[in-house]
Amino acid sequence: MTLPWKLEGQRTYFSKALIEAGRKDPRVVVLGADTTESLKSMPFGKEFPGRLINLGIAEQNMMAVAAGMAVSGLVPFSCTYSVFATAHVYNVIRQAIAYPKANVKIFSSHAGLTTGPDGATHQMNEDLALMRGLPNMTVLVPVDGPQTARCVEAAVEWEGPVYCRFSRSNFPTLTQPTDPFEIGRATVMRDGSDVTLIGCGIMVSRCLLAADELANAGVSARVINMSTIKPIDAAVVAMFGFVMAYVWFKVSDLITPIRVSKEVELEGLDGPEMGVLGYPDFQLHPSGQKLVE
């Protein structure tokens, strides 16, 4: 499939944003679990010797150390692959970070199906459901590289635990570094009047492509980038959903779907009809990109 956008890696933007955050705020420290080269956090350590700590292949320990640093007044970024940053350490995050509302920022790469040659064992698709289920946890899914950098900036200023997931592979750049970003606020990427397509992360570009195809069929589709998965911007969903159906696109499972309509209902707003697209309950395949397609 030929895409009309420039393809870039989110990890590169993440790396540069970490350094910028470190320059602005001396409280920012970075923790790794033997993935500092892959996550591109090593340049932060070169810029700030002593503020990058590699805990080795000991992810539970990394999260516990981060919690202790947060209690001492630092702003730790715990960085590794999504599968190791969530499922492998879930109880430590639950007990030491989420419950006490520790100011830890968990930023993970290799999320979803986009693990490339790392294979099916690293395809972490349950992370959104897992992390949304934790108390006090804010969950971010940036749409591209520039928004990944904005997530870093916003996470430093946000008081409390944050989980942010992004991709290993290069994906379309849809935003500019100067575009506004606010935790808890969705962004309308394209206006429309018949149907609303809501996506997060790499699926937003797919929503835009779908909107083009719908336009050719005479259907006007609005596309919303839901970059904050918790808290959901229920107000914008309800605002655009009164007279139209909407479809939620996510690279996650249908066994534990994100029920946007329920959150709209809890906000006391009328919820529109909704469909959810994701992958069903089946064994993942080493070629994750084929599943994305």
Largest beta sheet, briefly?
Answer: 7 strands, mixed
Strands of the biggest beta sheet: in what spatial order?
Answer: 3-2-4-5-7-6-12
Strand content: 15-25%
Q: In which range does the helix fraction lie? A: 25-40%
Number of continuous helical runs: 11
The CATH architecture of the largest domain would be 3-Layer(aba) Sandwich
Output the structural class. Answer: alpha/beta
Q: What is the β-strand count?
A: 14
> Whole-number average pLDDT?
83
**Amino-to-carboxy terminus distance:** 9 Å
Gross morphology: globular
The CATH H-level homologous superfamily of the largest domain: Thiamin diphosphate (ThDP)-binding fold, Pyr/PP domains
Structure description:
By secondary structure, this protein is of the alpha/beta class. It folds into 2 domains: 166 residues, Thiamin diphosphate (ThDP)-binding fold, Pyr/PP domains (Rossmann fold, 3-Layer(aba) Sandwich), CATH 3.40.50.970; 106 residues, Rossmann fold. 34% of the residues lie in helices and 22% in strands. It is built from 11 helices and 14 strands. The strands form 3 sheets. A 7-stranded mixed beta sheet has the order 3-2-4-5-7-6-12, sandwiched between helices. Strands 9-11-10-13-14 form a 5-stranded mixed beta sheet. The chain has a two-stranded antiparallel ribbon with strand order 1-8. Strand 2, helix 2 and strand 3 form a beta-alpha-beta unit. About 6% of the residues have low confidence.
Short description:
This protein has 293 residues and is of the alpha/beta class.
SSE layout:
Layout: E1 7-9, H1 10-24, E2 28-32, H2 42-47, E3 52-54, H3 59-71, E4 75-81, H4 82-85, H5 90-98, E5 105-109, H6 127-132, E6 138-140, H7 145-157, E7 162-165, E8 170-172, E9 187-190, E10 195-199, H8 203-216, E11 221-225, E12 228-230, H9 234-241, E13 245-253, H10 260-266, E14 274-279, H11 288-292
Parallel strand pairs: 2-3, 2-4, 4-5, 5-7, 6-7, 10-11, 10-13, 13-14
Antiparallel strand pairs: 1-8, 6-12, 9-11
